[in-house]
Amino acid sequence: MVQAAQPAWSDPVLHLMTVLIDFEVAGTTRLQVVDALKARGVGSQVHYIPVHRQPYYRDRYGALDLPGADAWYARCLSLPLYPGMQDGDVERVAHALRAALGL
User: Fold this and answer.
1) Which of 8, 17, 23, 94 is least surrounded by Cβ atoms within 10 Å, i.e. has the fewest?
2) Do the beta carbons of residue 80 and residue 43 sit within 8 Å?
């Protein structure tokens, strides 16, 4: 697999590939995108529910208004990323995401 150059602004986690999608602008919902990806054999999920929304922290500290965390959560979707992933796998996931978004 070809290793892409890492942009200076990038700090990848190397175990998650999370994309940010403005679902409203895209004219779809996250669930519709997840279902469309699944129909193309691509699993996806959301990582992670913001900490301030987790029951433990909400019960301990009360409801917090953290609009940045909530906005990020509303737009995030995690795509497959694994050590044995080949260029063809990456292309398949990218094409499936484009199709799911109608691009």
Assistant:
1) 8
2) yes
Cis omega (within 30 of 0) for bond into 56 = no
For residue 84, the model assigns a pLDDT of: 84
What CATH architecture is 17-100?
A: Alpha-Beta Complex (3.90)
Tell me which residue has tokens 């669930």: 31
How far is the first Cα of the chain from the last one, in angstroms, to the nearest whole number? 26
Domain ranges, ordered by start, for the chain? 17-100
B/e letters for 20-41, b = 16+ CB within 10 Å, e = fewer, are ebebeeeebebeebbebbeeee
Q: Look at residues 37, 41, 49 and name the one whose alpha carbon lies nearest to residue 76.
A: 49
pLDDT digits (tens, 9 = 90+) for 4-50: 677 788 776 677 889 999 999 999 999 999 999 999 999 999 988 99
pLDDT digits (tens, 9 = 90+) for 51-70: 999 999 999 999 999 999 99
